[in-house]
């Protein structure tokens, strides 16, 4: 006997392919008994048909830091999800973006994240820093993408990604 999967996350996101806000993101919690609790993601864009599916252990939904070293063009195509609660840090580029109140979660590629950052950092990023972001987008710089997420919702879809728990200080 298995329980019905429960919806634990539901949000309308910007689609990484067609860029319209029609990506219906739904996560289900599923009790697979022997395999433990699993989170099934079934995300579907109603505009262009893009689909994202994923299964991961529920236990990973704790405050965590995810790190990915971007070393080649392939790494730039890695799918990532930044939740609305996540901070983005790229030490090599001197970038640190706090989860702003208005900022929404989004799914994108690493390259797409840099594109979004380029839009967002306009205020404090000078020309030199913009050029570095552009170089990073072309795969000319090795850098580390760090997502710090207190909600534990974010993910990087890569076997190279390193996940560490956030140690909360009092
Ligand atoms: Zn779409």
TrEMBL record:
| Name assigned to this protein | ZPR1 zinc finger domain-containing protein
Q: Which UniProt keywords apply?
A: Metal-binding, Zinc, Zinc-finger
Q: Which residues form a coiled coil?
A: none
Keyword match Protein biosynthesis: no
Q: Name one GO molecular function term.
A: zinc ion binding
Organism domain of life: Archaea
Query: What family does the database annotate?
Result: Belongs to the ZPR1 family.
- Domain Zinc finger ZPR1-type intervals: 13-158
């Amino acid at each position: 006997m298995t329980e019905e999967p429960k919806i634990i996350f539901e949000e309308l996101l910007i689609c990484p392919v067609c860029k319209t806000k029609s990506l219906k993101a739904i996560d289900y919690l599923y009790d697979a008994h022997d395999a433990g609790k699993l989170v099934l993601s079934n995300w579907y864009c109603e505009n262009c048909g893009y689909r994202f599916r994923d299964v991961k252990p529920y236990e990973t939904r704790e405050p965590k830091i995810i790190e990915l070293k971007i070393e080649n063009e392939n790494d730039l195509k890695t799918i990532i999800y930044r939740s609305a609660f996540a901070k983005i840090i790229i030490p090599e580029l001197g970038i640190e973006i706090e989860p702003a109140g208005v900022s929404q979660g989004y799914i994108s590629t690493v390259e797409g994240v840099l594109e979004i950052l380029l839009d967002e950092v306009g205020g404090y990023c000078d020309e030199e820093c913009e050029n570095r972001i552009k170089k990073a987008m072309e795969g000319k710089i090795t850098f580390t993408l760090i997502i710090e997420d207190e909600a534990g919702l974010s993910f990087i879809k890569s076997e190279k990604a390193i996940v560490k728990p956030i140690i909360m200080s009092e």
